[in-house]
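Tokens help. One example:
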Amino acid sequence: MVEYDVAIIGGGPAGSTAALYLYNLGFNVCLIEKKKFPRETLCGEFLSREVIDILKNLNLFDGFLKLNPNPITKFKFYNNNSFLETKLIFPAYGIKRGIFDNFLLDTVKQKGITVLQPGEVKEIIRGKDFISLVVDNGQSSQTILCSKVIAAYGKQNILDKKLNRKFVTHKSSLNGVKFHVDESLFNFLEKDTIQIFVANGIYCGVNSVGENKITLCFLENRREAQGNPKDQIKNLSNENKNFELLFANGFINEVNNVPVYGTGNIFLGKRELTQNGIYFIGDSSVVIAPLAGDGIGMAMQSAKLISRTFEKQESGKLSDAQTEQYYIREWKKLFKRRILIAKMIQNIIMNNRYMKIGYSVIKTFPGLLENIINSTRGKKLI
């Protein structure tokens, strides 16, 4: 058995960022990721100011630019007949999650940080002095010991059930679907713009992510997940003519041939932030309403926060109980307000009646749109 200061479960933006910050602080870290990279996952693939700040803080921004991300400078919101638009007052980019996640995890490996991949944590056993993790690589299993565990495994994981996290029994009607399509299948494109198309109970984000690919990411309020992307396109096209006008002939048939990435039962409510020496970050701690486009930013900011938390404890200022309390308090300062605002906005957007009222108000006072967008941005974590 090998002993580490911190074990991190999950190699996405939250897990990889936490590994890099903790390594820079001198912690002995082990990162465990069950899937081989590059891999895609459900995501709107919008990187906002928070992400750029952290990439620069980690001296990774120049390397990131070499991935040729697509710069985004504008936002447009479409209903059936017209649209609202505003310029973004912060830097933003679009890039495939598979490329971005692989870039971060490769950086972790290049630092010499221990990475177990593929490796799936089957059990987390709390001992008197250490936490034991049983890790299966598909052929054999090993046990590692650590002082602390960071759970950065995303929206849902079999471990949530084993840990008896309260939200696992909740049944939501929210389902997400993402797919990439070639830009040649569109009638028109504004590559520098993230576009949101809405109808009753459904919306879709559309943005360019480089490599001549466009991301379409839907969120539906449905009782059952719709596995065929044709369904989402038809549903939204029937109610939003602006969305229908996007596509060239043959688009629907081509969509049937592309991989689909989806998640059902998306829970946007409250989750535990700590549990028996386990600290939850990124989507494991909360899933912000996707409309805010802030999921990756929050993942990386929570990773920076957890490294600061452990550094504070290491300096001898906090007991274990105080460390958990500190993390919970600082997490709420950083995220609670914007989570509530994003959820409120999404509830309005997903209800046709409320959406029409809100749209009319913003049409009358266009400056509100910029304020609404900025309200879902976080504070700069120094």
